[in-house]
Write a structure and sequence with these properties.
Shape of chain A: globular
Largest sheet of chain B: 7 strands, mixed
Structural class of chain A: mainly beta
Distance between the termini of chain A: 37 Å
Distance between the termini of chain B: 37 Å
Radius of gyration of chain A: 13 Å
Radius of gyration of chain B: 13 Å
Order of helices and strands of chain A: EEEEEEEEEEE
Strand content of chain A: over 45%
Helix content of chain B: under 10%
Oligomer: heterodimer
Order of helices and strands of chain B: EEEEEEEEEEE
Number of strands of chain B: 11
Shape of chain B: globular
Chain lengths: ~110, ~120
């Protein structure tokens, strides 16, 4: 079941904040977040696991609401380098080891 | 340290021809994934390998698509009798293990154009 991402696109000025949401109609075990710049490969940002464990490599925060079956990615004080398409990937309990990715949220940060 | 590499970076082929896309994962990564990315469609899962075996082939769109992995390393995705709808960017990713807590490292992709 492909998760639904919202909004589809966000346009910001440097320094502004943004929230990207990822929702599923099914219970989730984990949520992955990746960022893809135009013409480049997706790059790992964060994994959130049921139970609260969180793994990430950048100063980006996220939440995982198991009850609501959704995750939110918080981008604060955005920088030009944050521009790109953000994908969430979700895994269901007892599923395969493959995250199902949403269609992406395009984020554009202007000077 | 080398990342995931893919070849060719671009491939233009005529409808009906076969193509082979190659992926070299990060050394030591036992899990390897293939995805297809069409414009505005996100990442579509095709197949994954744990070692040399493919536990999940459910994403392959048709029997024209096949993949293999040898020596627990290099993988080849083969598309036979290509169709125009096969045009897309094919991405390969690898992770240390297949599992919910392992991040994937993506290659730069192969852009396939079927004319």
């Amino acid at each position: 079941q492909q998760p639904v991402q919202s909004p589809q696109a966000v346009i910001l000025r440097e320094g502004e904040d943004a929230v990207i949401n990822c929702s599923s109609s099914k219970a989730l075990y984990s949520v992955h977040w990746y960022r893809q710049k135009h013409g480049e490969a997706p790059v790992f940002l964060m994994i959130l696991l049921k139970g609260g464990e969180q793994k990430g490599h950048e100063k980006i925060s996220a939440s995982f609401n198991e009850k609501k079956q959704q995750s939110s990615l918080y981008l604060t004080a955005s920088q030009l380098s944050y521009s790109g398409t953000y994908f969430c990937g979700t895994e269901e309990p007892g599923g395969s080891y493959i995250p199902t990715f949403g269609r992406g949220t395009s984020l554009i940060v202007h000077p | 340290g080398a990342g995931v590499s893919q070849s060719p970076s671009n491939k233009v082929t005529e409808k009906g021809k076969d193509v082979e896309l190659r992926c070299d994962p990060i050394s030591g990564h036992t899990a390897l994934y293939w995805y297809r990315q069409s414009l505005g469609q996100g990442l579509e899962f095709l197949i994954y390998f744990q070692g040399n075996s493919a536990p999940d082939k459910s994403g392959l769109p048709s029997d024209r698509f096949s993949a293999e992995r040898t020596g627990g390393s290099v993988s080849t995705l083969t598309i036979q009798r290509t169709q125009q709808e096969d045009s897309a960017v094919y991405l390969c990713a690898s992770s240390l293990l297949a599992g919910v807590s392992y991040e994937q490292y993506f290659g730069p992709g192969t852009r396939l154009t079927v004319t």
